[in-house]
Amino acid sequence: MKPLILYFTADFPSYEILKRFLEEVDPEIVKYVEIGIPEINPLYDGPTIKATHSMALKNFQREHLRQFAEILIKKGIRVFALSYYDRINKEGTNFIHYLKDSKFSGIIIPDLLTDYSEESERIIPEIEENFSFIPFFNPATPDTVIQEVSSKTSSWIYYGLQPSTGIDIPFDLNEVSRRILDLVANREINFGFGIRTIEQIKEILGLGSSGVAIGSLMVQYLKDNDMEGFRNFQNSVRGVYLNAE
Amino acid sequence: MKPLILYFTADFPSYEILKRFLEEVDPEIVKYVEIGIPEINPLYDGPTIKATHSMALKNFQREHLRQFAEILIKKGIRVFALSYYDRINKEGTNFIHYLKDSKFSGIIIPDLLTDYSEESERIIPEIEENFSFIPFFNPATPDTVIQEVSSKTSSWIYYGLQPSTGIDIPFDLNEVSRRILDLVANREINFGFGIRTIEQIKEILGLGSSGVAIGSLMVQYLKDNDMEGFRNFQNSVRGVYLNAE
Amino acid sequence: MLSTQDSSIIPNEWYNIVPDLPKQLPPPVDRDEKKSSIQLLNQILPKAILKQEFTFQKYTKIPEEVQEIYAQIGRPTPLFRAKGLEKALDYNGKILLKYEGATITGSHKINTAIPQAFYTREEGSTGVVTETGAGQWGTATTVAASLAGITSKIFMVKISFNQKPLRKQIIELYGGEIVPSPSRETKFGTEILSRNPDHPGTLGIAISEAVEYALEHDLKYMLGSVFNSVLTHQSVIGLETEKQLEILGEEPDVLIGCVGGGSNFGGFVFPLMRKFKETKIYASTASEVPKFSKGEYKYDFVDTAKILPSIKMYSLGSDYVPEKIYAGGLRYHGAAPSLSMLVNSGRINSSDMPEDKVIDALKLFARTQGIVAAPESGHAIATAIDYVKNNTDQKETILVNVSGHGLMDMSIFQR
Amino acid sequence: MLSTQDSSIIPNEWYNIVPDLPKQLPPPVDRDEKKSSIQLLNQILPKAILKQEFTFQKYTKIPEEVQEIYAQIGRPTPLFRAKGLEKALDYNGKILLKYEGATITGSHKINTAIPQAFYTREEGSTGVVTETGAGQWGTATTVAASLAGITSKIFMVKISFNQKPLRKQIIELYGGEIVPSPSRETKFGTEILSRNPDHPGTLGIAISEAVEYALEHDLKYMLGSVFNSVLTHQSVIGLETEKQLEILGEEPDVLIGCVGGGSNFGGFVFPLMRKFKETKIYASTASEVPKFSKGEYKYDFVDTAKILPSIKMYSLGSDYVPEKIYAGGLRYHGAAPSLSMLVNSGRINSSDMPEDKVIDALKLFARTQGIVAAPESGHAIATAIDYVKNNTDQKETILVNVSGHGLMDMSIFQR
Ligand SMILES: Cc1ncc(COP(=O)(O)O)c(C=O)c1O
Ligand SMILES: Cc1ncc(COP(=O)(O)O)c(C=O)c1O
């Protein structure tokens, strides 16, 4: 089955609630989970996710990450961290080691290529040495950057459908996906950022070669601690996935 | 030899002086003489000739025309009248008959095609019935008019090098003559209006098919009653003509 | 090649209609027995212009440098289909526009200014002088002079000069010298000022000053319209249009232009009359200056000052002063001799357009075609709109010359 | 075919440089946690524009109607050799000019106004709203709206509105509605006027009013520069130039343009950078607004009013107020993100030009080329002249974009 990826901000809306949601994640359809590390200014997240960061920051403890990972890994789901460059920079390789020790499979750094492209030349190989760097591309990523960064990494690629998530910017899925699929053939590319309906998931899967990452769409369930809603949501997605087979 | 044509305004500067000049006209080189009938407003004459008209008007008597003609015809020179339309119109066929009786060979009406083109359709055939109508064309005469009027007449054609005479307007002889020669082949076409030097006579003769009419160039000799000058002038022209053979 | 505009469309010969007229053109004449105005022209015009003026060649080679400058100032100007206007008028035929406003000085005037300045320089004169009323002609003269590398001096009617500071700015920017007329730079102007220091000036006075200045300083005088040589230079408009029609595969049923002195009209229409012999033709004039409908076809002075020769033309009298000034370029009392003859013979129709219709036409044109046309050109557009309204079921191709843009004349919309 | 200008030169796809940049373009971001300015754009921009703004396709098809209107407003604009200027500078190389002043509104602004108005109508909105400072953008907006058959409303900074009555006239003539800002037509304006009835207005206030008005009346807001979609539309300039260079058989060694928000510059230079990888490139700015030499490369607000998103660009700070106003279009505090990135990376050089050099350049240009260029474009010309003077023995081909004509801005020569 094609990969489905769920995104959660660590400790949103609280340590306990998130843990319960993670336990509910269905390994039959979810292949990876991304855990976002809360930030003061998550620049490239849209307002929905941004709001989760400011709430999560109050609760966040680094140790929780290991616990979240444990829950998922037990079910056979791989876990990836999503962190802005600032934290990596401050905590240094330490942080990467911690993630690796905690059984995270890799890390996504959404602002690295945009705002720290010089640093990226050094950091990507460093990370790749004993961990996975998941390239985060979007329609604004230049061809040359996509080709170069892809060639320096081996894991899957996260492709944001737009430069910021959570905002209702119109785009033409077909157009937006064509370029990346043409540029990086034979590689797992999962699309995310700005998926707003179950319908769209269907559409994206129809484009052929990729799975889907979902974030903003689940925030309301977490906020409301609506486990029932989350379950139904997973089931609807499963329906779409099965149909797409 | 190619035709040389001299123009005199009747009774300028006086009946007597003009008579003496006409007697001096050299039949070896002069083929035709034009006699202009004085007018109050000889519209298409330049200032030099215009001035002769206003002087001549005081002296003019119609009967003199016959006497001028006689002098010339005796020498074998043909005589043509030059008259503005107004007089023809006022005096009617009478005037034409008078000219014919006086042994004039034909008439030139410089304003006919320009200002009385409707009337010309009637008048030209009328004149041509028993007299000669000498078409007066210039660079402003349209192609169609040149062709039509030429076909209705049989005598020689007077081609003015510019629309008014006696004024130092520059023109390209070659350009100006080419059109008329192309439009009316195999016809005697004499050029006049605006010939200001003996040199130019040479040039015009060099163009091939045509003689030359001279007017303004002689006015000073008449005014000064300078018979000597006139004789020398005729001799210079003869020189040019002989060289052109 | 100077430009990638298709410069093969720029003609290499001007066309002079005179040899193709149905009747012979009455020549310019002197009416003052004491001084010859034709002799005067001889002193103040370049020989090449005089030659063109008095000995009519059907085709005159356009000097290569002039062709190059034509390309530089925006020739060929566009010919395009006015789809917006057609739609607004709900017209099933076609409206095509030749747009002289696309030249860098914004009107057709530059088409004759360039060769006149060029010949002046070729014949060794160091500069040109002319008069200007509204300012269009003065601007074209200055640009042409600067491009030819000679000086230019413009006598501008004082009242206009004061009302239109932009004109002073642009003429100076282009390197010309501009003086309000009457001025103290000529005897004639000085004399007028000594009698009335606040004299507002007239076009006649400005012409007199320009001519005197040219004579005194051994400069050449530039002719803005009416004269046949000017119409000949303007034939680039129609000659280009002819080639462009061929490219578009169109044939016009109706030709329309506006008439001040007749130069844009003649330049546009005459070359096209050769091939399109059956077209209907409309010359649009201002109702305030109804030269064709109320004027007489006679010899009259070219200029109010009676300095230049007389020519046979439709004229309201050289002293005629129209009331309004909203289309400065159409205030002239007469019209070029060749055009006058063709109106007189019935080949060309005339159409008087009142101010309100012209303003409406200009507004509609701006909104549907995006172009602010010159008030003068607005007359041609108004006549075209009128024609369409009176012939709605026809599916004809109407070809209109839009002689200039109106960006410097927008004050007319303030009323 | 609408026109006999060689319309095959008009491109049928716009080019967006973003996928070809050396680094990833930092996206527009929100900096206010309470309200999302990106969400706001979503409400006031046509979907098609938003799409172009946020999901970057290297090539976007130009809708056929937009291509037709491009032809109607004077595209392709000419590319020609500036022989007069070369001669005056005694330069042995070549100077080529792309001249956007040849469009009917006199500058490149119309290139983006047309598609924005078109998409607005296609998506069912009945009109557009925008702000204008000097008036160029307002005029282009109104013409584009009228040609698309929708309404336009322009909030013009009150002090400019009072100084430039021509702009009001032309916008109304073109069928637009123009209001001095602050006005009583918005809550924002009303509030400002209640505190100070004589408030002269600022561009920030005008933007706020335009945005509020668009929201309240369900209209679309038009973007004049800086945004990537605008630069994409402006790519018609460079794409045409590329084809025209091919026709002329020329290859540029140097590219020069002026920078306000960066739209004419980006539109001109970016498409050419694809093929001519070794060219030297100069972005000319006003010494009074030295955004590249004195500004910082950082996230900053697009507009003084802080209503629109923040973008990463060279900026003098969104509160920066330059002293002088002689080149209104270059007063903007920042520059488009893609252009800023390329200046930051060193690929594009910047050149600050002081007023006196620009005025001299404009004069020389007028006299040798016959064109009154816009003061903004005068910077590009001045930079080109400087380049020639510093590289006299080179025989290079210098290609300059002249973004507009200056016929409406001649007051700058009065001082
Ligand atoms: C734009 C424009 N059109 C037309 C005219 C009328 O002149 P003409 O009839 O000689 O073309 C003028 C004269 O100033 C003009 O400026
Ligand atoms: C003629 C002209 N050129 C240049 C500019 C600068 O804008 P941009 O840098 O977006 O092209 C303007 C802006 O008003 C302008 O009117």
CA-atom Rg of chain C in angstroms: 20 Å
Total number of domains of chain C: 2
Task: Examine the coordinates and then state which fold CATH places here, giving the name of the CATH topology of the largest domain in chain C.
Answer: Rossmann fold
- Note the gap between the termini of chain C: 46 Å
Low-confidence spans of chain A: pLDDT under 50, at least 5 residues? none
CATH H level, superfamily name of chain A:
Aldolase class I
Structural class of chain C: alpha/beta
> What global shape of chain C is seen?
globular
Biggest sheet strand order of chain A reads 5-4-3-2-1-9
Instruction: Record the strand order, biggest sheet of chain C.
Output: 3-4-14-9-10-13
What Rg of chain A do the Cα atoms give?
Answer: 17 Å
Integer tally of domains of chain A: 1
Which cofactor or ligand species appear?
Answer: pyridoxal-5'-phosphate
SSE string of chain C, helix = H, strand = E?
EHHEHEHEHEHEHHEHHEHEHEHEEHEHHE
Structural class by secondary-structure content of chain A: alpha/beta
Task: Determine the CATH topology of chain A.
Answer: TIM Barrel
State the main characteristics.
heterotetramer; A: 245 residues; alpha/beta; globular; C: 415 residues; Rossmann fold; 6-stranded mixed β-sheet; 4-stranded parallel β-sheet; 16 helices; binds pyridoxal-5'-phosphate
Describe this structure in words.
The complex is a heterotetramer, with 2 copies of chain A (245 residues) and 2 copies of chain C (415 residues). Chain A is α/β, with parallel strands linked by helices and 245 residues long. Chain A is built from 12 helices and 9 strands. Helix content of chain A is 51%, strand content 15%. The longest helix of chain A has 18 residues, at 227-244. Chain C has 2 domains: 15-63 and 109-228, Rossmann fold; 75-107 and 234-414, 3-Layer(aba) Sandwich (Rossmann fold). Helices cover 42% and strands 17% of the residues of chain C. In chain C, strand 5, helix 6 (136-148) and strand 6 form a beta-alpha-beta unit. In chain C, helix 5 (110-122) packs parallel to helix 6. The chains are: A alpha/beta (245), C alpha/beta (415). At the C-D interface, helix 3, strand 3, helix 6, helix 8 and helix 11 of C face helix 3, strand 3, helix 6, helix 8 and helix 11 of D.
